[in-house]
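Quick illustration, no need to memorize.
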Amino acid sequence: MLSDSIFTKEMSSFLSGYMTCALWTSHDADGECLDVNYGTHDISGDTQMEMTKDCVEFYKANRELFPEGYSMNEAGHDFWLTRNGHGAGFWDRDLGEAGDILTEKCEAYPEVDLYVGDNGLICS
């Protein structure tokens, strides 16, 4: 069992990787990647709560599948890519059977589309 401090550190890294990847793969109305003009601090509170809920749930349910040496930042990045059907993710990370299982587990999570709201914040 993970200590609270290790859980907090790993979860923070997982969520950071997830949010950063979300901005990197999403686009504004002009087709520009969101990470060019926005940071994670620009994600609306509601969207941050949704992201956090999904990340904590996925992390807790699947933590034992992450191999030693696989950074939680990469895991969060791969969770975003895989759940959204990008051409990369858990399945191509050379994680073996764990990558296949993690990919399958992502099927329970629908795709998420980000956009810039009228308030200038990133919403889903």
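The longest strand covers residues 115-116.
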